[in-house]
Amino acid sequence: MTKIIVVQSFRGGTGKSTIASNLAVQLATLGKRVLVIDSDTRSPGIHALFGLTPESLGSTFTDYLLGHARIEDTIKDVSEQLKMPNGTLSVIPSSIILGDIATNLSSRRNFNKMRRAIEYVVDSTDVDIILVDTHPGVNEDMLLTAALGDVVLSVIRPDNQDYQGAHVTAELMRKLGSNVHLVLNKVHRRQPPTALRRKIERSLELPVIGVLPFTEEIMFAESQYVFSQKHKSHPFSKKIAEIATSLGDINEDNIKA
Length: 257
Description:
Elements: E1 3-8, H1 16-29, E2 33-38, H2 46-49, H3 61-65, E3 76-77, H4 79-82, E4 88-92, H5 98-102, H6 107-124, E5 129-133, H7 140-146, E6 151-156, H8 160-176, E7 180-187, H9 193-204, E8 208-213, H10 216-221, H11 227-230, H12 235-248, H13 252-256
Parallel strand pairs: 1-5, 1-6, 2-4, 2-5, 6-7, 7-8
Antiparallel strand pairs: 3-4
Helix pairs in contact: 1-12, 6-7
């Protein structure tokens, strides 16, 4: 059965897309057939991490939303260029053409087309996991997309504004009946991860599925590649692998444990 993971954040700059791309690679490394949808049509970029250039994008998710392409024509298999050893990895990128980014897309139409896109993937492919990278913020697009997910990963930093935003998001997600888990990112080495994790879980009443260290090397990578694939022994990569293992079977009982 295909499982849907929605990755979101209250604010930009949390590392949401970095985490989404790294999780996708790690899940594929575990032997899963993974599809990433970049639904952030207003600030797309996840394609660059998978080695897709502006010239190689072809038909995009934006084209699909605008009625200019079929969803099946937007899927790009990047398994070979990423040298995936076990599973497969495909991506549906969003357009980086300025006119497309500036287009005001209807949220309700987006939701209906997103739902139909997911239905097509579930019914017509052998994908195990659909991972949806969303636009940051609490907006109708994100909430409607989150409602389609089996699991919502909310990425936050150890920052008071992020805590408050995560609290607002969590309340909305609970009303939607979403299964929300937190990923705590950019944790400084001076911050004890276990104590921080417990504090956040008590405060927000949500489980923390992973705590990721602040990593300068990711910034210097300049989004040219998926960090955990190139630096497998790095502490960040090991933590990403742990989260991927937890999500691998996406059994709600063991995720909530």
